[in-house]
Amino acid sequence: MRLDPAAPVRIDLGDLGFDEGGSLLVKRGLRIAAAGAEVEVTGAAVDLGLHLETWCRAEGHRLRLAPASASAWIVSRGPAGRDRRDGGPRGGHADAARPGALAERPPGTWGLAARGAQVEAGSPDFGFPLADRLEVWSDDAARLYAQAVAAQWDPATAVPWGAPFDLPDEVEDAVVQVMTYLIENETAALVVPSRFVAQIHPHFREVMQLLAVQAADEARHIEVFTRRALLKRADPGLSTAGGQASLLTLVREPEFPIASFLLSVLGEGTFLILLKFLEEHAPDPVTAAVARLAAQDESRHVAFGLSHLRRHLAGDPAFRARLASAVRRRHDALRQTAGLNAEVFESLHLLAAGSLSPANLRRGHQRVMTLLAAMHEARRANLERLGFPPDEAAELSSLHTRNFM
Amino acid sequence: MTDTLVLGAVAYDAKVVTIWDGFKEYLERCGLPFDYVLFSNYERQVEAHFEGAIDAAWNSPLAWLQAERIAAAIGRPARAIAMRDTDCDLTSIVLVPAASSVASLEGLRGTRVAVGAADSPQATLIPLGHLAAAGLEPGSDFEVLTFDRLPGKHGDHIGGERDAVRALVRGEADAACLIDANHLLFSRDGTLPAGAARVLSRTPAYDHCNFTVLGAMTPPAERFRDLLLGMRYADPEVRPLLDLEGLKEWRPGRTSGYAALAGAVDRFGTIDAFVARVAARCG
Fold first, then answer.
1. CB B34, CB B24: distance < 8 Å
2. Does A118 contact chain B (CB < 8 Å)?
3. ipTM score assigned to the predicted complex
């Protein structure tokens, strides 16, 4: 405890490196030093002088070597340090429902602090790229998170892995091909929210938590689709360049709301219909179960995408044009690719047919046509929910990647 | 020429958009019509500056020398109108493993020296010039291991320096060159484990980026400079911008801190062809 606030602050770091925590002690010294007072830092760490010099330059403090010493420095607090409040503000409130609980753009210096905690001045800036409430937040996030946590299912027990069935070879091959396709699409759906989880300001913790569970959902989907693919076969099927090119445009989308729109609203919205189709027409109970379980989760992902984009658009209606242009840009980028590969398309056809008999093939074809129409309809409806006029919603839906996700 | 000041900046990182969007908003709030254009590399930016596509350029020290020399060749003045406090009086360091027997720069003869991007002033050109001034010619007296991340960005992306330090830590290099501030950064983030390396040498102090203007100062350029110099870290609206750009205060530009880099590029001929080509085209 310092009894005399006017006395100079002396900090002896011993052999503690500045990078090892010495900076904490120096900062603390500067915080408690009276205005205009200097802090004397002594230490034996080999790089202390270099580190103090570069740190002081970055912080706007002045540094000089103490008279007649090679291991003592005098730090004079620059104006920038004084400009920060000694006692920082409360970073919002823990309960998001309280008025004023959420900042529109929480500063990076609130860092990983619990929302509502007192954030001490001098905290480091984490520089979270996604720190704009308009861009990130959804009032539904907490509810959807709680729902997601409650709805977690155990792949080991939720799927009747031991159920007996025996499919014709070509139908089993079709299932394996569809699973192979689902795995790479679900991998994209894991990678995209995972990237953004690390970028979202933790002030918006409910969104961060929801995306984390979303990634965990996809991890389980990848697991069950892989397990189904390998249930009767040694290897998965074919992964195509066109399919991966389509997914690459998703994985590389740098903007969260646009990625969310392309992935959750359009991609997973389409996938939801596909999974329901697979559940309905699955030739075996395991395929039906994995499709049903995945669909449960995907519907939450779509709901969140719609919810936070609706909020975003309410605050920034002009953003709708950017969403539309993202669809068109992606369509143009994929113009030269083959779209959904023939193997997947034919596998869906065969899976829906159940056998190679002409009558069943005709029925399978009709089911796939119905599927495509239902996908378009679902996308169109979701786009209208986001406020796109009917004609534009229909146009944008038709431009969505032929790869579905 | 409109009243809008168009600034050129190099997109070395996605945050550059955030930074200049923020400055645009601030400057326009202060009454200066402002816009910015991002370039993928400094050479394109310097060339565009001489073509009149931009009114001012946020230049790396190497880009400043390029602009200054092209301007001199064609008889136009080039001015450094402002810079960050954190651009002043930097040094680069030469690291060796803590257990290395090398005790002086001379001891690096016949060794492998890791540097950053080939066009990085701080991680390559200035330290190699420092070694050359000590009598060690890069490439002949010692092997240069270049970690060339994002050429054209003049080392703004620190990946090259990080790779050079990693090579040192893995024992694939006998020395590594980096800017002084990154020693602390890499020590803190674990790239440089505690006690793994020691500083063999520091270069003389030099300066880094500046805002460059060609020709006479126009009223928008003067207003731009004055608004920058008037930004105060105490202003909570300004502080996040300054934090993003890594400074506490803007200072009037000075050109006295580029001698070490000028000496290095003279010695290595780094920018001669570019300067000659642009000067011939724009002269």
1. yes
2. no
3. 0.87
Classified by CATH at the fold level, domain A9-83 comes out as Translation Initiation Factor IF3 (3.30.110)
A77: chain B residues, CB-CB within 8 Å: none
Q: What is the distance between the alpha carbons of residues A85 and A77, in angstroms, rounded to a whole number? A: 14
Among B219, B203, B255, which residue's Cα sits nearest to residue B59? B255
Q: CATH assignment of B5-87+208-282?
A: 3.40.190.10
DSSP code of B255? -
Q: Give per-residue pLDDT as tens, B35-55.
A: 999 999 999 999 999 999 999
- Check CB contact under 8 Å for B183 and A57: no
**Over the stretch B196-245, which tens digit does the pLDDT of each residue have?**
999 999 999 999 999 999 999 999 999 999 999 999 988 777 888 898 89
The CATH-assigned architecture of domain B92-202 is 3-Layer(aba) Sandwich (3.40)
Kindly list the residues from chain A whose CB atom is less than 8 angstroms away from the CB atom of residue B90: 57
Number of residues assigned to chain A: 405
Order the strands of the B197-202 sheet from edge to edge.
B143-146, B112-115, B175-179, B92-97, B197-202
What parts of chain A have a pLDDT lower than 50? 1-3, 86-87
Residue B93's φ and ψ, nearest 5 degrees, are: -125, 155
Return all residues near B227 (Cβ < 8 A) that are at least 6 apart.
B27, B30, B32
CATH architecture of the domain A133-399 equals: Orthogonal Bundle (1.10)
**A297-315 pLDDT, tens per residue?**
999 999 989 998 998 999 9
